What does this fold into?
Amino acid sequence: MYLYPKFCDERTDENGILTDFSLHYPDNYNFGYDVVDEMARLAPEQRAMVWCDSDQSHLEFSFADISRLSNQTANLLASHGVKKGDRVLVILKRHYEYWYVAPALHKLGAVIIPATHMLTLDDLLYRVQTADVSAAVCTSDGDIAANLVEVKSRCPQLKTVFTVRGSIEGTVDFTAELPSASAELERVPTRADEPFLMYFTSGTTGYPKAVMHDHTYSLSHIITARYWQCVQDGGLHLTVAETGWGKASWGKIYGQWLCGSAVMVYDFNAFSPSHLLKIMAKHEVTSFCAPPTIYRYFVKYGMNKVPQPALRHLSTAGEALNPEVFQKVREQTGLELKEGFGQTESVLMLANLDGSTSKPGSMGKPTPLYHVELIDEAGEKVKRGEVGELVVVPEAGKKSHGIFMGYCGNDALYAHVWRGGVYHTGDTAWEDEDGYFWYVGRTDDLIKTRGFRVGPFEVENVLMEHPAVLECAVTGIPDETRGQAIKATVVLARGYEASKEMGREIRAFANSRMASYKNISVLEIVDEMPKTISGKVRRVAIRESGK
It folds into this structure.
């Protein structure tokens, strides 16, 4: 049973490729009532979620379970003062409670702010103050709860902290109080265009920005789930993401439930490629999505070592995909990786959609939800084959579904990214003769050397072909004669040792395969990359190291 056709009009060509798509919904659309509760009414026993952890614990939840538990959660939160319009920080790792806390907040008309458990005390203070957070629901693991109690003592707007699976002084024991909460809930009036969800970006170059979405954001992920991840009605989809990151909204709740697919949740602390592959096989995962980093670890281990008879589709996003990884995955699984592109501020913008032929390393073509163009610094469209900034051009008089409604507390920045009447993504790419887009880098990551513009990714692609390279990042460093020289920072794969000889070998390998203006001048081998807490490489930190 699935609901997504109720909210959209779609058209495909003779090959089944999506060509036209538009959304329609009532003015009072709310995911909690109109999807979760409606699925519970129409298909109460249909599986909504399968959860397990590394200790072999296992639970399954039906849509009736999620509907009931979210009602109880809404009543519990409301009894402690949470109401429509409140902004609620939710830090629940991969705990199953997230999947009824989120719909509960939607039902109340509160704004959910998912966040990672890796945040420090200062990170929490920044988020509470920036977003004017009035309540928090958090795991009892680690020191998050204690830090939130400390934040509460400093920030009077934070009135209540709820803890899951345990409690400390100064918090409300969510798990203890939930069973006694009523499962009956009267619908709270909400509008589709009201704030629904807020994410803080990972902050690769500065303080994280608070990105706000309205209720239609959930519907905009129909394309994400149905035509890119290719989830199945009654299937089981696994996206590797902690609930604190935007990728969880892409792959762990909204589009999947709209399309009738259950979500697989593996609650782990330490990533192991072999363990994850075994979990996928055991629970018969039918579709899988993860960033390229996960696939790099998979192919180094060998995806063919753990057969996946139920697996039908693989997708990837979050960072650029190296063609070498694409080829290895296809060799080991027989499945073609479908790359996609989007941002915290959007949903899926570009993708290799179902039915299309992927080009290894390409982000694919624009989805029917958006009209995108590539422009130069003057705002003019570039020619095919030329690098330009990716922008979204809205249709006159129409809402750009899935594009965020603002930066909390920063109207000036919101106006800046919408300058010229188009949404500036800050990402650069080029378009080939077949209409496929190829990622180059962030606008501030482009390297200008000897009069040429070099995107880090095109050099990184070549580096990744060397078997000793597990991860790499390419940056520009000051050079008196060239303006900038090209530096590569490399993490070695297991079984290889750092040495001057290894560095020379990798550099010679890459330079022999590239035009001379792209040649690497400096190569540094490091134990690990500087990364944001979301796992993105911080090129700015590499540049600032001065090496």
